[in-house]
């Protein structure tokens, strides 16, 4: 398989946010939280993708080599059905953490409109045409408010940007609306 075939097959497997995964109630809240075990009001999938699209910052939780949590805000974008985060210099703690342990949690701002993505970080595909489209989308999203922002795809292979491979998403506005989507039957949040 040639380089472009490999890149295309990787790109084709992406886009997990393009189609709503299996929706269910989370099984963790105690009865006093008022989350019905079945039925009731759910958060709708377009609400999730809209929030991921319009968020200015994404709180990225990584794991240090010692097992401690490390959380920082980063820039990102929901692009072509996938979540990408630009994480700055490969020398930062968050990027060193991701090299050692790809498990992540991504949380958006909003205590009354909660959105949490749990999964793993993966390198951004080496497909140059895809990267050009991603850079253009990042510039459109952040360029007006942050004119000095310049995505640096030449650093992406060194660990300065990541694709988030989601295992699950958890969202709620009021606790009875708590909704979980699982991309993989093994994921729990």
In short:
The protein is of the alpha+beta class.
Describe the protein in words.
With 189 residues, the protein is of the alpha+beta class. The protein has a single domain, classed as Pnp Oxidase, Chain A (Roll), CATH 2.30.110.10. 28% of the residues lie in helices and 29% in strands. It has a six-stranded antiparallel barrel with strand order 2-3-4-7-6-5, surrounded by four helices. A hairpin with a 6-residue loop joins strand 5 and strand 6. The longest helix has 15 residues, at 128-142. The protein starts with a helix and ends in a 7-residue tail after the last strand. The relative contact order is 0.21. Mean pLDDT is 86; it is low at 1-12.
Report the CATH C-level class: Mainly Beta
Structure summary, number of beta strands: 8
Distance between the termini: 37 Å
Secondary-structure element string: HEHEEEHEEHHEE
CATH fold assignment: Pnp Oxidase, Chain A
- Mean pLDDT, all residues: 86
CATH architecture: Roll
Q: Going by CATH, what is the homologous superfamily?
A: Electron Transport, Fmn-binding Protein, Chain A
In angstroms, what is the radius of gyration?
17 Å
Question: How large is the share of residues in beta strands?
Answer: 25-35%
How many strands, what sense, and barrel or not for the largest sheet? 6 strands, antiparallel, barrel
Shape: globular
Order of strands in the sheet with the most strands?
A: 2-3-4-7-6-5
Helix content: 25-40%
In terms of structural class, how would the helical and strand content be classed?
alpha+beta
* Poorly predicted parts: 1-12
Helical segment tally? 5
